[in-house]
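Batch manifest, entry 17 of 40.
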Amino acid sequence: MNDQTTPTRTNGGRISFPTPDTMTAEQRQVYEQIVSGPRGTLVGPLRAALHNPALADRWQRLGQVLRFETSIPTHLNELAILVTARRWNSDLEWGIHAGDAERAGLPQAYMQAIRDGDSPDFGGDEAAREVYEFARQLLQTGNVEDPAYDAVLVRWGEMGAVELTAVIGYYSMVAMTLNVHRVPLPVGMDAPLDCPHGQLFTMPPAKES
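Output type: structure tokens
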């Protein structure tokens, strides 16, 4: 029988989230690595993952590679993350990465269409169209058809195809963690998505060029 008591939660989540004054030495070590790295702050799923410091450490290392160190241009990497956030109806993932995507130069019109469930009009931006379609298919079917896969392969090679798949898979794990533990939005961030309870969001194909 598990004799652990249920922690008191005052954060709006389903579980408690370690804070610097309640962390163990192992948790504090990982926390310091996170806040001193490119993220600069502890936010999102790592707040939950810190319950297992070894998991949080590997998680943040993998996330750093997939968020900051892929061969795919940053704005397109963020596009794939936004498609993932929309599929899983993750307000926090969307809220953080919409800002990152905008700073990286992703057009607002793309983000608005994805958020609203409209067919994005990428015009002549074939690279964005290819990333969107790859991500959309993978998230909605668990696989990618040959034309969408080959388009990514031709543009970014085998490394790019592997990276893009990993980004989508990783940020699906992030979204699931945020959703299931009800990690709260930071102060000042409004819920940006219309999230039907118990449903995954269905995204249409992009408009034809």
